[in-house]
Amino acid sequence: MPLRTQLPPEASIAQPDTGARLSAPSALRNAEVIAEVLAIHGPREGRALELASGTGQHVACFAAHLPHVEWQPSEIDPARRASVDAWATASNIRPAIALDAVQPGWGAQHIGQDMIVLVNLIHLISEAEAHILLHEVAAALAPGGLFALYGPFLREGRAVSDADAAFDASLRAGDPEIGYRDAADLLRWMQTEGLHTVRPLPMPANNLMFLAHRPLHAL
């Protein structure tokens, strides 16, 4: 994820595990359910790029569920890249690369992705950064490629629980440019980038999974 200094502690918890490994409680909770969705909707083979890979627990789980997909994790934080590589023992996971998902231009450097996965980042970046990220995702996807985005969102401008409302408020208190995005806004932003969207899937703990495809043919 982008390196921000004013995030509340609960926004990105990672604790030492063994060796270079870090462990995130949220990844322990959600990696399996996200992987199950990717196994159903994702490609059977090809290339997949994970943005903001964090500790590496997610990509290790994803690679196990989609063993014929070649996974490329990415992360801006060097300590977390080391953790990703420590978790990534499967042969279909490449070494983590340094990639800032909210910097313009990376899409052209990673063209032809059959799938791009992003977990729990959109609420930690500004709206302007979200637009950059989505533009680069659209540029990097192969025709027919899938973008899978997971995280917490507002519905019709409102948080869906008191806990979500409190977490959103804590994010905005530290940085008024970040916080939960409205699900309808995210659908519209992806469509603006030319991606075909479907109704987001409800996930545990009030989260949503957005699935969007790059069209096979240019409109």
Describe the structure.
The chain has seven helices and nine strands, in the order ββαβαβααβαβααβββ. α2 (57-65) links the parallel β3 and β4. The model has no long low-confidence stretch (mean pLDDT 94). It has a single domain (19-213), classed as Vaccinia Virus protein VP39 (Rossmann fold). α1 packs parallel to α2. By secondary structure, it is α/β, with parallel strands linked by helices. Strands 3, 4, 5, 6, 7, 8 and 9 form a seven-stranded mixed β-sheet that branches. Strands 1-2 form a two-stranded antiparallel ribbon.
Q: Could you outline the blueprint of secondary structure elements for this entry?
A:
Blueprint: E1 15-16, E2 22-23, H1 25-41, E3 46-51, H2 57-65, E4 69-73, H3 78-87, H4 106-109, E5 113-119, H5 127-140, E6 141-152, H6 162-174, H7 183-192, E7 196-197, E8 201-202, E9 207-213
Parallel strand pairs: 3-4, 3-5, 5-6
Antiparallel strand pairs: 1-2, 6-9, 7-9, 8-9
Helix pairs in contact: 1-2
In short:
The protein has helices at 25-41, 57-65, 78-87, 106-109, 127-140, 162-174, 183-192, and strands at 15-16, 22-23, 46-51, 69-73, 113-119, 141-152, 196-197, 201-202, 207-213. It is an alpha/beta fold.
Features:
single chain, 219 residues, alpha/beta, Rossmann fold, two-stranded antiparallel ribbon, 7 helices
